[in-house]
Amino acid sequence: MPPTITAFESSPDRGRGQARDMRVRWALEEVGQPYDVRLVSFAAMKQPAHLALHPFGQIPTFEDGDLALFESGAIVLHLAERHAGLLPLEANARSRAIAWMFAALNTLEPPIVELGMALLFERDKSWHEARLPMLQDRVRVRLGELSRRLGEADWLDGAFSAGDLMMVTVLRRLNASGLLDEYPDVAAYVARGEARPAFRRAFDAQLAVFNAASRS
C-alpha cells in the first residue's frame, strides 16, 4: 500500500501550490514514491479522526503502515532519509542539507508568513499602511542574506537537496509580492526549482484538486 497524505479539499491558495502539502507531494515525486491523497474539509480537520493524526488540526499528514506523521518538514525529512535523491550520501553534506531545511522553516518562513497574513487579513486596519513597510523590510533582510549566500550557485550546497526543496516552497509564497524581483538571483533559484519535473508533477496534481473543486 502506498503512503497517504492529506490535503485541503478546497485550498485557500486557489491552486497556486503554496499549501504545505505541496512540499510533501514534491518530495514524493522527487524520490519516485507513489502516494495516495485524502482530501479533508476545514470542518473535518477539527474532528477527532484528523486531530489524532495532527493535534493542531492542519495539513499535511502522512500515513505509511503504522507510522503517522505531521508537520511538512518532519515528513520531508522522513522521506529524504529513507529514499535516495534528497540528501547527500557524505555525512557533512547531509547535515548541511538538513540545516538548510531548518533555515527555510525557522528563519525564512516566519517573516514571509507574517507578511502574507498582513496582506490578506489586515488591509482594512488603520495601522496597515504604517506596518507594511516594516514587514517587507524584515523579508528583504532575509532575502539579502540568502542572496549573498547563494551567489552564482544553482543550489544552496552542491546538488539539489531537501534543503532546496523546502527553501523554494517557502520562497514561492512571495511570488505575488514583487519582493523576489528585487533579488534576481533568488528569483532565478526559485524558477529552477519550479522547473524540475518532479515539482511540475506535484504542482499539476494539487492544481487538479482545485480545478475539480471549482467545477463541483
Characterize this entry briefly.
With about 220 residues, the chain is of the alpha+beta class.
Question: How does the major sheet shape up?
Answer: 4 strands, mixed
| Low-confidence segments | none
Secondary-structure element string: EHEHEEHHHHHH
* Overall form: globular
Q: Describe the strand arrangement of the main beta sheet, using strand numbers.
A: 2-1-3-4
* CATH architecture title of the largest domain: Up-down Bundle
The total number of structural domains is 2
Rg from alpha-carbon coordinates: 17 Å
CATH class of the largest domain: Mainly Alpha
Beta-strand percentage range = 5-15%
Find the structural class using helix and strand composition: alpha+beta
List keywords for this structure.
4-stranded mixed beta sheet; Glutathione S-transferase Yfyf (Class Pi), Chain A, domain 2; Glutaredoxin; alpha+beta; 8 helices; 216 residues
Characterize the structure shown.
The chain is α+β, with helices and mostly antiparallel strands and 216 residues long. The chain folds into two domains: 4-85 and 198-208, Glutaredoxin; 91-196, Glutathione S-transferase Yfyf (Class Pi), Chain A, domain 2. Helices cover 56% and strands 8% of the residues. It is built from eight helices and four strands. A four-stranded mixed sheet has the order 2-1-3-4, covered by helices on one side. Helix 4 packs parallel to helix 6. The longest helix has 31 residues, at 91-121. The chain is globular and about 50 Å long. It starts with a strand and ends with a helix. The model has no long low-confidence stretch (mean pLDDT 95). Keywords: Transferase. One of its GO terms (molecular function) is transferase activity. InterPro entries: Glutathione-S-Trfase_C_sf, Glutathione_S-Trfase, Glutathione_S-Trfase_N, Thioredoxin-like_sf.
